[in-house]
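TASK: fixed-backbone design
INPUT:
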């Protein structure tokens, strides 16, 4: 503002000089507020069409902050396909704390309606889900939540605000791991909560300062920089993913492909209605069980074996032993995560290189 710099400065400061006792110039201490973080929070709120954004040190910290809107004895109904860390938080932190946790088939709004109890305060879903790329009907779930005076929270990390804006469909709160598409370059960890309702905002903002899991100014700056190219990156992620999903679907060594952009996806029509694109995540089941998974992964050259997603470089992940290792084998089976499931985060490299890498690893 003062210099005309076209980028937001990194305010690398922990504290701020005050003009007199009780006369701060708008900032007092960087856990409470920091101009770089505030710029990020405003950018994220604007992308989601919400009034307020609150940035956190990780997606999990953002998730924790939202669950803090609840009290022991309250019930949350969560979708049955979830990021492993969210499941771990619910089962190992919040259930012992006194939260009542139930799960419902994320593709079936009636299953959520049937799980509502007098103490239900929140419906928590991801869509598309991790790792099975299921699609939840946000508008229908918002109606169910409103009827029972519960909050509908959508973890929209897999879609990014470029392809999906849950608040416009009736959700109360949107959560992102900004580590993923929003940051976009696999170089920082962060999370955000976006919402419009005053009371929930004030409570979450209080918690952000009181519990203190805030991102530093440099991390905020990196995410702000990532956001500038979100649109172009998302279009490339999707273009590459759609091409590879179609290729995998026809491949004899592939038993099943999960990608909401395929006509064969059970919620393809719903995805078309509530999203403007299908993003860059694909899961598939390989023929030949676990030995085939190991062989495939070891033959890949371009796709890097790593957790996380949403960066410009392509990654491959084996959910049962990586992102979803918090679920024991029986729980994984119940949720449909098979031992031959592979998850791809398709990057923005040249499609011919990605295709050659996949086909080579599948053994053609
Ligand atoms: C990665 C991820 C999270 C957790 O975010 P972190 O930044 O790793 O703490 C939450 N939800 C989804 C869908 C994710 O992919």
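OUTPUT:
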């Amino acid at each position: 503002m003062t210099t005309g710099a076209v980028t937001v400065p990194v305010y690398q400061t922990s504290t701020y000089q005050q003009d007199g006792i009780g006369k701060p110039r708008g900032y007092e201490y960087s856990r409470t507020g920091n101009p770089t973080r505030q710029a990020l929070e405003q950018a994220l709120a604007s992308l989601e069409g919400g009034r307020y954004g609150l940035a956190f040190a990780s997606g999990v910290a953002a998730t924790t902050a939202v669950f803090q809107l609840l009290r022991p004895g309250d019930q949350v109904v969560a979708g049955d396909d979830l990021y492993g860390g969210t499941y771990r938080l619910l089962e190992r932190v919040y259930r012992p704390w006194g939260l009542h946790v139930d799960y419902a088939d994320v593709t079936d709004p009636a299953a959520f309606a049937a799980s509502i109890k007098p103490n239900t305060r929140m419906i928590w879903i991801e869509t598309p889900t991790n790792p099975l790329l299921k699609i939840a009907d946000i508008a229908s779930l918002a109606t169910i939540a409103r009827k029972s005076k519960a909050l509908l929270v959508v973890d929209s990390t897999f879609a990014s605000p470029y392809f999906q804006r849950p608040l416009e469909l009736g959700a109360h709160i949107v959560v992102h791991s900004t580590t993923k598409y929003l940051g976009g370059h696999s170089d920082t960890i962060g999370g955000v909560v976006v919402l419009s309702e005053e009371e929930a905002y004030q409570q979450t903002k209080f918690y952000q300062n009181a519990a203190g899991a805030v991102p530093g100014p440099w991390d905020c700056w990196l995410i702000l920089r990532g956001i500038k190219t979100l649109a172009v990156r998302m279009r490339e992620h999707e273009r590459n993913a759609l091409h590879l999903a179609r290729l995998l679907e026809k491949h004899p060594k592939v038993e099943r492909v999960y990608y909401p952009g395929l006509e064969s996806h059970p919620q393809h029509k719903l995805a078309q209605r509530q999203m403007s694109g299908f993003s860059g995540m694909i899961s598939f089941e390989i023929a030949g069980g676990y030995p085939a998974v190991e062989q495939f992964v070891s033959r890949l050259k371009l796709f890097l074996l790593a957790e996380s997603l949403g960066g410009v470089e392509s990654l491959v992940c084996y959910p049962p032993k990586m992102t979803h290792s918090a679920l024991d084998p029986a729980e994984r089976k119940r949720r449909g995560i098979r031992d031959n499931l592979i998850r791809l985060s398709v990057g923005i490299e040249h499609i011919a290189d990605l295709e050659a890498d996949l086909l080579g690893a599948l053994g053609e």
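COMMENT: The CA atoms of residues 258 and 283 lie 5 Å apart.
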